[in-house]
Amino acid sequence: MLQRRLIWSSISNPVVQSNGNSQSKWSVKQVTKSNFSAALEEISTCVSEFDFIAVSLKNTGAYSAPWQRIMPIDTAHTAYLKAKYAAERFQVLQFALCPFKTKGSKLIVQPYNFHLFPRDELKIGMPSYSFSCQSSYLTSMAQEGFDLNACIYDGISYLSKSQESAAVDRIGNASPIGFTAQNPSEYTVADSVFAERIKSRVKNWITACKETNKMPEDALISSLRKIVSGDEVYGSRPCLSIDVCSERQVRLVMETLKDSVDVIPLLTAAKGGTIRSVRVVLTSSEEDRILLLKELQSEEKEHNKLLRGFREVIDLISASQKPVVAHNSLNDFTFVHSKFLAPLPSTLEEFRSSLCLVFPNVLDVNHLMKEISPMTKVNNLPACISYLKQRFYAPIDIEIPNQAEVNEVKTLGHDVVKISQLFAKLSSILKIAPRTPKTVEGHLPDAIECYTNSFNPCFTSSHGPSDEDVSVWTDNTRKISIKNLVFLWGFRGVTSAGKLKSLLYGSHEVFHNEFDVRMVDKSCAVVAFGNPGFSEVLLQLLDSGGICTNTLKEMLADGLTAAGYETYQKVCELGPWEADLASSMEKALEETESFSEAQSKELSRICWNNDEMINLDDL
Fold first, then answer.
1. Please, are residues 96 and 56 in contact by the beta-carbon 8 Å criterion?
2. In 3-state terms, what secondary structure has residue 503?
3. Strand order in the sheet with 237-243
4. Burial class (CB within 10 angstroms; exposed 0-12, middle 13-18, buried 19+) of 149
5. To which H or E segment does residue 97 belong?
6. Residue 393 contacts by C-beta under 8 Å, 6 or more apart in sequence?
7. Comparing C-alpha atoms, which of 322, 357, 359 is closest to residue 438?
8. pLDDT tens for residues 379-415?
9. By C-alpha distance, which of 52, 111, 137, 9 is closest to 416?
């Protein structure tokens, strides 16, 4: 049993402010397109030196209707589907990143806040985004000092991994040898003729270039010679372009050139990804060859940086294999996967498997909080920190290396520091070592391992109810099977769960025993039965119309409709995402009925055809 204690937390060398709010003095480096390259070098060093990486996102919205937010009645599957829908509709405008480590009671953090905006940097029509915005989210960011105009003009663009692959195919890029040479033993007669012609052409071109360098030549004659021979210039070096029409010809050219130490072949791709030509660049010496290769590597690096944009940071975090700490990890990482990796898969398990390939260890401070107080609402970071402050003594000194004096009132990116602080406090209280082991690379201590990669909002580390058990009550940890839930809508004039429960109570024998009612939104309620099987009885009763009480008869006449959890799950899987849950449930039922009718007709047709065949056989 955790003892109730007081907590004390301070900031190392704080700049005292008149209002006493030292958080506003946290120095979070703001990163835009103009200082992105420099910040990337800094972050690379920090990530390698620190033990954990905290992340926090600011999006243009989360859900468009009350029922679309993740609720206690959601299973892990439906919660993921809601998060997926939000990630596909809204956009990330800020991505805060904070490498951190602990030394005793000292927390060393290095926070950065990236301003993002999807932009067609390469003029290729990618990324072509349209996204939704909610005024409340933009207002909240503006109150923290966020400048939307600056974000649009100076925000960092990016391409996801899947978009990058498509972009490379569309724009092409000159690159060093990337093909395996063709084996001469596999040559056909046509291959041999082509290879000899290329070999002779390249040899004569190299000889001509070297002779031209030895003696001066008239400018007109030099120009005519270049036109006839197909000479070009790559920078200041002579270059010969060899057109190819197949991948086989590319391999033949590579085989022909492999013994030529003076030249470097570059593959030039056309739009669509096919190789259009092989450009042969002539170097003057071995030193010049090495210099050209370094230039090509530098050009490729800059090209990739321009192509990937902010995703360079995502790749950096992934390459480090450091544990990533978040708050509400399901919401954040559905956005991360959708924007920076690839389109979201259809199921939670596929999502988890895909994400673990990039981020093998994701920790959610919400799950750690539930170990301390499962019943406490911890929907936001201030609530979590305040709860711990009232009950536990866990001194944490926050140190930001090279922190400069901060005179602005902006609090952009401060959440990521709070996540780091909260994780350090929880690690201290739960006696979890907040350091990654140096000896076993890629593995975490067992005390932390059990909290990783769980994207179920109702997660607990202990073995509890199955994934199909949910909670109907926000102030009670009791779980109930989704088979015991019934959704009701079409109750006119009823505006509260209490009133609806009083109308239902005693109207049938299923409502004489333990049951409860909760409003999902203003149009739909969920009824939770304490006894198994009562939900099926109610659904059959309402479907058959065999109602013997006046109350239920009147409610049915007014349009009362009921459905099981499978209909709610279908709404989350296929839509429609209407403003009212009742409208979405109605459309889902209509689709189910239409599908059932179509199946019945198809079955009748098959039976009729079989009967006809039997009659013909009798004849």
1. yes
2. helix
3. 231-234, 237-243, 275-282, 263-269
4. exposed
5. strand 92-103
6. 5, 6, 7, 8
7. 322
8. 688 888 888 888 888 888 999 987 655 445 567 899 9
9. 111
3 state DSSP class of 116:
strand
Q: For residue 555, give both structure tokens.
A: 């409610």
Name the 3-class secondary structure at 505: coil
| β-bridge partners, 234 | 237
Residues 6+ apart with CB under 8 A from 579: 64, 65
Q: Give the burial class of 135: count Cβ atoms within 10 A of its Cβ; 0-12 exposed, 13-18 middle, 19 or more buried.
A: exposed
CA within 13 Å, CB half, 176: 15
The dihedral region occupied by 486, where left means phi > 0, alpha psi between -120 and 50, and beta the remainder, is beta
Three-state DSSP class for 302?
helix
- Residue pair 60/137 in contact (Cβ under 8 Å)? The answer is yes
pTM of the entire structure? 0.80
Amino acid at 374: P
How many C-beta atoms lie closer than 10 Å to residue 36's C-beta?
A: 19
Nearest to 93 by CA among 155, 159, 30: 155
> Could you give the CA distance from residue 99 to residue 48 in angstroms, rounded to a whole number?
9
Report the C-alpha gap between 28 and 451 in whole angstroms. 28
CA 385/CA 428 separation, integer angstroms: 13
In the numeric block, which tokens belong to residue 284? 């003057």
Q: Are strands 485-489 and 561-564 parallel, antiparallel or unpaired?
A: antiparallel
pLDDT per position as a tens digit, 91-137: 999 999 999 999 888 999 999 999 999 887 767 666 667 888 999 99
Residue type, 478: R
3-state helix vs strand vs coil in the chain, percent to 5: 45, 15, 35
The Cβ-side half-sphere exposure at 308, using a 13 Å CA radius, reads: 19
Decide: 145 and 412 in contact? Cβ < 8 Å.
yes
Instruction: Kindly report the average pLDDT of the chain as a whole number.
Output: 81
**What angle do the packed helices 565-574 and 581-618 form, to 10 degrees?**
100
- Alpha helices, DSSP H only, in 90-218? 135-143, 148-154, 161-171, 189-214
Biggest CA-to-CA distance, the chain: 111
DSSP state, 404? P
pLDDT tens digits, 529-563: 988 999 999 998 888 876 667 888 888 888 899 99
Query: Alpha-carbon distance 439 to 433, whole Å?
Result: 15
Residues found in the chain: 619
The C-alpha atoms of residue 65 and residue 381 are separated, in whole angstroms, by: 23
Neighbours of 25 (CB within 10 A): 17
CA dist., res. 544 & res. 596, Å (int)? 17
